[in-house]
């Protein structure tokens, strides 16, 4: 049989095609084989907080479902921004992820020019859970409920202060939302974290404060601070005895909390994204996972939440508060 000889142009075309296939095949194989090594989840805070607890609980579930170790790396600083920046700058291979809260994902960029990343620098994989915040009074404030708080602060504009865990945090924005809705004038006192805020409230050096529910609950149950209301539209299933601020007509539009989401770097390959999304959705429906999250005061997210749409709505809400309060760092 005669041998077919390729002309030079045809030979060149064929060689080019084979070269393309040889470079494309490993990429496809890499995505198909993912994951083949441990995955790191970055948490932008020290161990022990609500974001860290959420990250560790999710990591356990994802590890079981993906069949590789999933480890937590705590990178504290700048309200979670340092950890978030590491993930935004990471290779989009699915091996470096972020369990972040509303602060570092959606708020920080609105209040400080020091943050260089934006939401577009991430792939939004899925919402994990949310928690309400809670407005509290110290024992020395002399109020027992929301009505007494409103009356006392209204009659004494500028006399009282409320504290949060820092400028531009969810706690700060919640306090400003309460002020806006209630037409109140209080001074904001930013603390470097929850611990000093707690000390001043329990020492009666500060009249009012805002906590994440899970952080404030032990002090509420012990009677050391008084819960005036939670900040989401409805009461928390964890604390049905504490009314939502929105149940009072004057505060009907108060609806803010802290939420946690799983994010990857931008341009995460679709096969990797699909596997992560499925593993996360399976985790959200795990009875053991739900029990752990709910015991900490969190409400587990529905698997049907479109995280991109959710983030757009949240950023618009936060921007309105930031603009009203003229918050800038």
- Class computed from helices, strands and strand pairing: alpha/beta
Number of helices in the DSSP assignment: 11
Q: Provide mean pLDDT, rounded.
A: 90
Contiguous runs where pLDDT drops below 50 for at least 5 residues:
1-29
Q: Within the CATH hierarchy, at the fold level, what is the topology of the largest domain?
A: D-Maltodextrin-Binding Protein, domain 2
Largest sheet: 10 strands, mixed
Rg (CA only): 24 Å
Find the CATH superfamily of the largest domain: Bordetella uptake gene, domain 1
Description:
It is built from eleven helices and ten strands. The chain is of the alpha/beta class and 329 residues long. Mean pLDDT is 90; it is low at 1-29.
Briefly characterize the structure:
By secondary structure, the protein is of the alpha/beta class. Residues 1-29 have low confidence and may be disordered.
Structure keywords:
329 residues, alpha/beta, D-Maltodextrin-Binding Protein, domain 2, 2 domains, ten-stranded mixed sheet, 11 helices
Task: Give the arrangement of secondary structure elements.
Layout: H1 8-33, E1 39-43, H2 50-66, E2 70-74, H3 81-88, E3 96-101, H4 102-111, E4 122-138, H5 146-155, E5 161-164, H6 170-182, E6 187-190, H7 194-202, E7 208-212, H8 213-221, E8 225-230, E9 257-265, H9 270-284, H10 287-295, E10 299-300, H11 307-325
Parallel strand pairs: 1-2, 1-3, 5-6, 5-7
Antiparallel strand pairs: 3-9, 4-7, 4-8, 4-9, 4-10
């Amino acid at each position: 049989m005669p041998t077919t000889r390729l002309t030079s142009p045809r030979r060149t075309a064929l060689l080019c095609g084979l070269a393309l296939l040889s470079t494309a095949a490993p990429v496809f194989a890499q995505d198909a084989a993912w994951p083949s090594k441990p995955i790191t989840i970055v948490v932008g805070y020290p161990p022990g907080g609500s974001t860290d607890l959420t990250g560790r609980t999710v990591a356990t579930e994802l590890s079981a479902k993906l069949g590789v170790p999933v480890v937590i790396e705590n990178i504290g600083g700048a309200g979670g921004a340092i950890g978030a920046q590491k993930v935004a700058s990471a290779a989009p291979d699915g091996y470096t992820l972020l369990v972040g809260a509303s602060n570092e994902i959606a708020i920080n960029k609105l209040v400080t020019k020091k943050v260089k990343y934006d939401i577009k620098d991430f792939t939004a994989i899925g919402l994990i859970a949310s928690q309400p915040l809670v407005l509290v009074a110290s024992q020395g404030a002399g109020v027992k409920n929301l009505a007494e708080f409103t009356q006392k602060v209204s009659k004494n504009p500028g006399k009282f202060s409320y504290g949060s865990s820092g400028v531009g945090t969810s706690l700060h924005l919640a306090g400003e939302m309460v002020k806006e809705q209630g037409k109140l004038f209080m001074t904001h006192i930013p603390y470097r974290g929850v611990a000093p805020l707690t000390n001043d409230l329990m020492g009666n050096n500060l009249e009012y404060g805002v906590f994440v529910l899970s952080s404030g609950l032990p002090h509420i149950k012990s009677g050391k601070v008084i819960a005036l209301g939670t900040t989401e539209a409805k009461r928390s299933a964890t604390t049905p005895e504490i009314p939502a601020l929105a149940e009072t007509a004057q505060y009907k539009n108060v609806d803010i909390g802290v939420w946690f989401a799983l994010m990857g770097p931008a341009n995460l390959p679709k096969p990797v994204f699909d596997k992560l999304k499925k593993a996360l959705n399976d985790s959200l429906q795990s009875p053991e996972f739900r029990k752990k999250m709910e015991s900490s005061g969190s409400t587990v997210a529905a698997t049907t939440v479109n995280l991109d749409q959710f983030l757009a709505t949240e950023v618009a809400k936060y921007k309105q508060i930031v603009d009203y309060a003229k918050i800038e760092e």
